[in-house]
Amino acid sequence: DKVHLTVDLLNEHPIELEQISPDQTTDQIYRLCANQFQIDRSLQSYWNLFFYYQENHHYFLIRPAFPFESPFHSLKQLEKHFQRPRLVLRKSYWNLDDDLKLIESPATRD
Fold it and tell me: Is residue 108 exposed (0-12), middle (13-18) or buried (19+ Cβ within 10 Å)?
């Protein structure tokens, strides 16, 4: 059984993942996103997947996606508690000095 999964960026740009297994883990989904954006392997540790809900074009953090969970199934559960839960690819660090490393790469500039 294959499903469609949308992963958003904070600028609301969607990453469409087609024909994936609903049981794929966060790590597997993350690797698909990183490959689609051609994020250099040395920079991949700066990014992660998070669950957000969206309201009036604003995103509100619910929690990080755990590496072992299925984002597809988790989104289905979050729909019971939040309107428009989303899976979002975003930077996973809070040190602004790391931004300089990412600015040098065209794939991670936006």
Answer: buried
Q: What distance in Å separates the CA atoms of residue 73 and residue 42, rounded to the nearest whole number? A: 29
17 and 24 Cβ atoms separated by less than 8 Å: no
How far is Cα 42 from Cα 78, in angstroms, rounded to an integer?
A: 32
First to last CA, the chain: 34
User: How many whole angstroms separate alpha carbon 2 and alpha carbon 6?
Assistant: 14
How would you classify the pairing of strands 3-8 and 58-64? unpaired
Q: DSSP secondary-structure letter at 65?
A: P
Q: Report pTM.
A: 0.82
| Residue 37 parent element (H or E) | none
- Number of helices followed by number of strands (H, E) in the chain: 3, 5
Q: Residue 6 and residue 108: Cα distance in Å, rounded? A: 19
pLDDT tens, residue by residue, 17-36: 999 999 999 999 999 998 88
